[in-house]
Structure formats: structure tokens, C-alpha cells
Amino acid sequence: MIGCELLFRIFYPLLILAHKRGGYSEDAINRKLGKFEAHMEGDKTIMFHGVSVGEINAIEKLVKKVREEFPNIKIVVTTGTNTGQEIAHKKLGETTDLITYFPFDTPSCVKRFLANVKPDIVLMAETEIWPNFLEGCKKNRTKVFIINGRISDRTFNSYKKLKFFFKPLLNLYSGIFTQSSEDMNKFLSLGANPDTTERMNNLKFDITAPAVDIELKKEGRIFLAASTHSGEDGIAFDVYKKLKEKYSDLKFIIAPRHLTRLDEVKSVVKEYVLRSEGGNLIEHDVMILDTMGELGKIFAFADVSFIGGSFNKTGGHNPLESIIFGKPVISGPSINNFKDIYSIIQNAHAGFVVKTEDEFFQIADKLFSDKAFYEKTAKAGEQVFKDQQGALEFVINRLRTIL
């Protein structure tokens, strides 16, 4: 697209300035320009693209499974953001051959990028439509797929007005595999090829409950506040104190996201026992989980879990770690990191997103007081996993037919 290249050259100084102000390093900008050396000669290369944190979290297990199933394949992961790069290096640094930035979508940047990376297959998480990248891959005979595809209602309404533009682009994909039938129908109504558009379910649900190889001495029911951030300890503890007035058997576990905040948590709850000191919930009502690597297993002992990072601007944490054990979850309004998961569990009535501390208490109170409501919520969570799992094997099977 000549016009796109011309606009890029005109606005290049402003674009670079904006990226520098946004915290992108000189190296990151050069990588977006396609100016780096990848040395991807030899075996076939699969490229995964996840624009930021949520998408990288979604494809993490798939990337590792591809490495296991196809050990001779070179694996490249790209992101569009700095935070995406950070999480990709943290979670996939030892699994991949290259982690870098997705190029600016201009013919020149894309051409340099593809000449460096030489992907044979590109798997793009969720909804990534880059015209010049798709055209460049077509010229190179690179197969491009959307995996875990989704389109929000707002985006869909915008795209519908430009169907004439999106239809030919959607048909450049070798396959579009969606999270749900609803998402599949949205892609089809925008002009996607019905022969290559299928429902695959959601990769984020392809998890298994960790083996619970720890003990927790307890009596009564447990309210867990998991992965709390500054300011959330008090909210969760205040809700617990109100619940405790109604349910004398109720115990409280709080697990700060970062143990560097331990003193802050101690100052909020005041009377507590530390998990690291062998404390129990028989003689004590409140426990601070100050150990590493146990939270995923502690969910098994909880009755209701609050998922932190959701009453501040963190964007929430993964609620599935609790739901996988059949335990209902409550989160605050900040859930951007896992908005697709929350949409599914809310629609299934398997979890709750609350706006205020008062609403938080009301939902928790109903879960502890209404046995039928609790069991219905827990069973809804189990059904969500049954409905959503299988996505990982779907993609692996497709790759087996291509490679």
C-alpha cells in the first residue's frame, strides 16, 4: 500500500517521538522498523503474535506444547508492547528461539521483518488485522492464522461499517479459529471464508488443577483474598470482618501479590499467623500466605476467593486458578488483563465482578448464606471448563496437518 508508506514517512518523526515518550528503547523501535538480525536459517519457523500481556498469557501453554510436539521447529514470539515483551521473556524466554517486536505495518518495515524472521506459519492471537503484514505474508507464501479469535461487540459494530475493507483482508488468512460460536459468526458476517473459519474454544481454559500436595490445618469455611495489591488488603479484610459477624466459623487467608508488601499486610490485619511459621486455621482466624508457589494449591482449600489486582489499575489476575477447583470468585472492576475470561464466567454465572466494597460484601454474603446459590455457581464454573477446553489440542492437530 503506497499511500500507507507515504504517510508513514511523513509522520515518522512524530511516531518515533511518541514511542520514545511511551518508554520504547532505541532497540525496540529498530525492531519495529524491522532493523535487526534474526538468523532464522534452517528448519521451518512458527511465529506467534500476542499484542500484550493478556494474549501472551493465553498462548503460553500452546507455545510450550508446540516446542514439545515439534522439537525441530524454530519458534518466534512477537508482541506489540513493552509489557508484552517483558512477560514473553519471563514466561517463554527458555522455550523460544527469538522474542521480538511486531513490525510497524508498512510495506518497508514488514518486508525487512519477514526477510529476517522468515516465518512459514504465523499464529496471531485473538484479533490482529494488519493489511501490509498480511500482503507481505501472501507474497512470501506464509500461512497466517487467527487463533483464539474474538471480536468485542463494540469492535464488531465498527467493523461492520467497513465490511468492504475487512472482507478481502479476512480472506488472506489460511484459517480463523475462534473462542466461541458467537465470535465465529461475527467473523463470518464480516466476510470470512466459511470453509476455513471454525470454533476452537478458548486457550486460557486449557489448564489443569495443580496437584494439592500440601496440608492446611483448618476448621470452618475459608474466605481467600488472593494476589492483593496495595489498597486492596483493607477492602478484603473489611468484607471479611463483616462476614465474620454473621458466620462465626469463617476463616480468612490473605495472599499479597508481592511479598515485599508483607509489613503493609500485617499492619492491616493486625492479628494473624504466618503460613511460613506453620500456622493453622484451627487456633487462628487469619493467616497471611507468605510462602512462594503455594497460592495455586491454596485455592483448593478456599470456599470463596477474591481475586486481587482488581480494585486498582493493575487489571486483575487469573480467576480460573480458583474456578478450576470449583470455587466461586469475586473480583473488583479492574479486569482488563482477563476481560475475555471474565466475560465468559459472568455470562455463565460462574463468577462475579463488583464495583464497590458494599457490592463485594453482598455477593460474598449470599455465597456463604445461600447453599443452593453457592452450588449453582460452583457447578456453572465446572460447566464452563467443560464447554471451553480443547483449544490447545485443536491448534496442535491443525499444525500436524500443515507441518
Structure description:
The structure is a single chain. This protein has helices at residues 2-21, 26-32, 53-69, 82-92, 107-117, 131-139, 153-160, 163-170, 181-189, 232-246, 262-269, 295-298, 320-323, 339-347, 357-369, 371-388, 391-402, and strands spanning 45-49, 74-79, 98-101, 121-125, 143-149, 175-178, 197-199, 222-228, 251-256, 273-274, 286-288, 304-307, 329-331, 351-353. With 403 residues, it is an alpha/beta fold. The radius of gyration is 23 Å and the shape is elongated. Helices cover 45% and strands 15% of the residues. It folds into two domains: 22-206 and 389-402, Rossmann fold (3-Layer(aba) Sandwich), CATH 3.40.50.11720; 222-387, 3-Layer(aba) Sandwich (Rossmann fold), CATH 3.40.50. Helix 3 packs parallel to helix 4 and helix 5 (107-117) packs across helix 6. It has a seven-stranded parallel sheet with strand order 3-2-1-4-5-6-7, sandwiched between helices. The mean pLDDT is 93. Strand 8 (222-228), helix 10 (232-246) and strand 9 form a beta-alpha-beta unit.
What would you call the quaternary organization? single chain
CATH topology of the largest domain: Rossmann fold
- Kindly state the number of beta strands: 14
Helix amount: 40-55%
Unreliable stretches: none
The CATH architecture of the largest domain would be 3-Layer(aba) Sandwich
Number of domains: 2
CATH superfamily of the largest domain: 3-Deoxy-D-manno-octulosonic-acid transferase, N-terminal domain
Instruction: Enumerate how many helices there are, as a single number.
Output: 17
The order of strands across the largest sheet is 3-2-1-4-5-6-7
State the end-to-end distance. Answer: 31 Å
Strand content: 15-25%
| CATH classification class of the largest domain | Alpha Beta
Which structural category fits the helices and strands?
A: alpha/beta
Mean pLDDT: 93
Q: Which term fits the overall shape?
A: elongated
